[in-house]
Amino acid sequence: MNIPAPYLLMLGDSSDPLSIKTARGIHYWRPEKCLAQLRLNENTASLSLPEMDVKTASENGAKTLVLGTANAGGVLAEHWIPLIVEAISLGMNIASGLHQKLTDVPAIAEAADKYGVTLFDIRHNNDKLDVGSGEKRAGKRLLTVGTDCSVGKMFTTLALEKVMLERGMDATFCATGQTGILIQGSGIAIDAVVADFISGATEALSPACNPERWQLVEGQGSLLNPAFSGVTMGLLHGAQPDALVLCHEVGRDHMRHLPHVEMPSLDDIMSLSLTMATLTNPNPRFVGIAVNTSKLDDAEALTYLNRLSEQYKLPATDPVRYGVASIVDHLESVFGG
């Protein structure tokens, strides 16, 4: 997969800041690829990139319009189609991480064929996948797990890779979601894999490797989220993780998009994750807790994290505020460099 840059990041028209997490992730980790942003509503969250429409962006060298939004169901909004067709007519490729395929929209597919551009349906994998085997394979693996979706699993995994590489460790990020794939340039969107093949896809994504290499598998969903628990279970079994990092957001009252479902406790997620992970790894261990503390001031955040660290005897940190060096320190102490 080679998506031409620079990108025009389309942020859509939702006022929910979490809706632009795809675009935000690309901008944070690959800013050199991002030319401008396009918002369809002035209330839409901003990345503070230059504002451009598709014509202006094309004139300034944009090669790909990236649909940088994530919504429940992953459906392409009807009123976006004319905009996408216009971008195609100006010679821009289109990249989408939505479940609905660009190639299944006649107006978009016909325009792409007419103007000779490429449609990148990031979430859809055309490779043959096998069911999981559960067989032990060489190498070491870390998986991020969460109390809910959108609690920082991708960010934490990328942050861990960055620190580990800076220390000269052999580590690689294994992307399992559309944003991670756009950042990494490779991966498998696990939530779009047929259920029987999720663990097998995860095995393929993190195959046998050098015994000293750490494959850092991006987590998805949550074991106790009734909407997305299946994908988390498949990742746990397919990654057969040696190490786990728990991700959580302070102050979230209920599961995202599910106001009738209370947030689970950290204890429940950690206990269940270890139990489930032992199916394919006899000794999985938590090595840290990564927390989004954006709803707390600095003093409150440090107090909260120190309390977690004392309670669980693990490093607890906010990857954005304080980095993840403490988690890598603990990982090295447990497993060696």
UniProtKB/TrEMBL annotation:
Gene3D superfamilies: NAD(P)-binding Rossmann-like Domain, P-loop containing nucleotide triphosphate hydrolases. Transmembrane segments: none annotated. SUPFAM superfamilies: P-loop containing nucleoside triphosphate hydrolases (SSF52540). Residues 131-328 form the D-glutamate N-acetyltransferase-like C-terminal domain. Residues 53-124 form the D-glutamate N-acetyltransferase-like N-terminal domain. Pfam families: DUF1611, DUF1611_N. InterPro entries: DgcN-like, DgcN-like_C, DgcN-like_N, P-loop_NTPase. PANTHER family: DUF1611 DOMAIN-CONTAINING PROTEIN, GLL3100 PROTEIN. NCBIfam families: DgcN. This is EBNA-1 nuclear protein. It comes from Enterovibrio coralii.
